[in-house]
Amino acid sequence: MHHLSHLPLRTLLSPNILMAHKLLLESTPSSSVLSSSLFSLRRFIPVPSYEMNGPFTRSPRPPAPLRVSRFCTHASVVMPGAAHLQKVEDETRVAAKLAELKKRLEVEGINCGTCTPGQYHHLFCPKCAGGDSNERSFSLFIHEAGDSAMWSCFRAKCGWKGHVKAIGQPARKSPGNKMTSKSNSYRVITEESLNLEPLCNELLAYFNERMISRETLRRNGVMQRRLGDGVAIAFAYRRNGSLVSCKYRAVPKKFWQESGTEKILYGVDDIKKAKDIIIVEGEMDKLSMEEAGFLNCVSVPDGAPAKVSEKELPSKEKDTKYQYLWNCKDYFPKDSRIILATDADEPGQALAEELARRLGRERCWRVKWPRRNETEFCKDVNDVLMYLGPDALKDVIERAELYPVRGLFQFDHYFEDIDLYYSHRSSYETGVSSGWKSLDELYKVVPGELTIVTGVPSSGKSEWIDALMVNLNRSEDWKFAVCSMENQVREHARKLLEKYIRKPFFMASYAGDAERMSAEELKRGKEWLNDTFYLIRCEDDCLPSIKWVLELAKVAVLRYGARGLVIDPYNELDHQRPSSQTETEYVSQMLTRIKRFAQHHSCHVWFVAHPRQLQNWTGGPPNLYDISGSAHFINKCDNGIVVHRNRDPDSGPLDEVKICVRKVRNKVIGNIGDAVLSYSRATGEFKDLEKMPEANRTKRG
């Protein structure tokens, strides 16, 4: 093969010259292996122009004509180098060896039929049968002399490889995607067997444009491999100084690796005994880190996945995609700090997450890529080095942040929200008015909180919540999801309409002398009902579960913008709990789920719960510990309210309803105490008393 140094770079690295196929890497050392693609020499930074000076001023030679018979990847392609066999053996001896070889292949389950020696053949894999796509993924090559054959299935889920000789040596097979840790199962390679050689001037110029110096290339053993009339960059993967594998690059970004070799991290010897370890996505990034002064850096060998896997973390034996981490686990001491400097794109971030899952998020850090200019961010390590320089890259690493761990935060994550809260610029930071001045001193409504409402039967719990929703809609235009199992829809509509229109629905005894709402007012009221409330109801005879209610409430929040949820009452829900779980445990779990819903969706929840049967009741309001089921109703709620209607004429007017605030977790929005409202039987409205007797108001706290 003639020397190539006299060729211009555009000719040397032309697509025709560099064209190759990954199958050729598995050929014998005497075989010629071809690369592909064209090196890009865009001027990202001020460097001498290699096209305008020196030997590059010569007119480029036209690219060599593409000989399809040598480069096609389909079946019946002549093996490069086959024409240079030292001697073609006697046809009889070749036929005998070929017959023996085919027998050995049949033992492996490979039916080569009429496969011609010296050619590649694409068949159906005996192991995976082409998978679901039924593809001919199995490549078989029989040496022209008939004395050996090699095969490989290129389906990722199979990966069966092996080779066999006609005489004297049993078959050697790769077990597909079942990894093994035995060192003698990997192919032994050397620089001589791969025909590696020092980088030519053209490739040195290519690295120079990317700010990679000759010294960095020399220290990392970056070499080249001649491929036909072209060359490819060879990144030598070494461990303890010995060559373990080799990865090739033909730009733009076409990579392949030596088959049958162990997967390890690139530059793994540089992180021996290192306390800080940087992991990058590619070999070029590893070299770029060294230009910024960081030797303690390694690169992954296989690039980044398209997205984060949704499956559970596989065992070591089945984690084939990231086997290089397991093979290098001894290089990551438990007290090491790992900085993930993967690319800024989605696959790069997916790689960071997959690495953090395996190495432990608690010891991982991540980088934030700086701006390249006013409109763009740097996309990776080499981008920062080329556009901003080594000092900027050093600053990126020194400013690395802790890798986020789900559920664990520092306060600075919330500083913006705290500032808004302080300056009264966040929504409803001190609560929303209930619509009653006397009650606002004790209780306001805050999105994301849970209010438990209780009271003896016929005390007006549901009526008061309906009136509160009407007030919130009038003042703040709130919308609500309502799960009210005790009310028929038409009856509930009547109560809400009376409060909104402020007129009775019927001309009946309860209305007294009040004027009935007109048909026009009813029409307007129905439009308001339809725009304000979203009903959660079981239309069959089944009882709703709390999970079902919250799922539908989530839809109301996301689809219609509901800000409040009413569940009325607790005892009408289907309480599906295992026999081993106590009611107290169940109530605790249920209330936790409701609170998480409220906080996550910034939705206030009113949950009505009846008190248990009261013994020796004297007519006074119950307390929150009287609620049937569990003390968790008061322990877990943000606000606890008892609604109590006066039934004794001697104690005061019968239209007075006492709103007893018995728990307020947030002192900013309320306090413990009682507010007394008057109730209109005709319209269902609650109003502040014009003048409230001190005896009827027992404010505490």
From TrEMBL:
Q: Check the record and name the SMART domains matching this protein.
A: TOPRIM
**What positions does the domain SF4 helicase occupy?**
425-693
| Alphabetical list of CDD domains matching this protein | TOPRIM_primases (cd01029)
One Gene Ontology molecular-function label:
ATP binding
- Pfam families from the xrefs? DnaB_C, Toprim_4
Cite the InterPro entries for this sequence.
DNA_helicase_DnaB-like_C, P-loop_NTPase, TOPRIM_DnaG/twinkle, TOPRIM_dom, Twinkle-like
One annotated GO biological process:
DNA replication
UniProt protein name: SF4 helicase domain-containing protein
Lineage, broadest ranks: Eukaryota, Viridiplantae, Streptophyta, Embryophyta, Tracheophyta
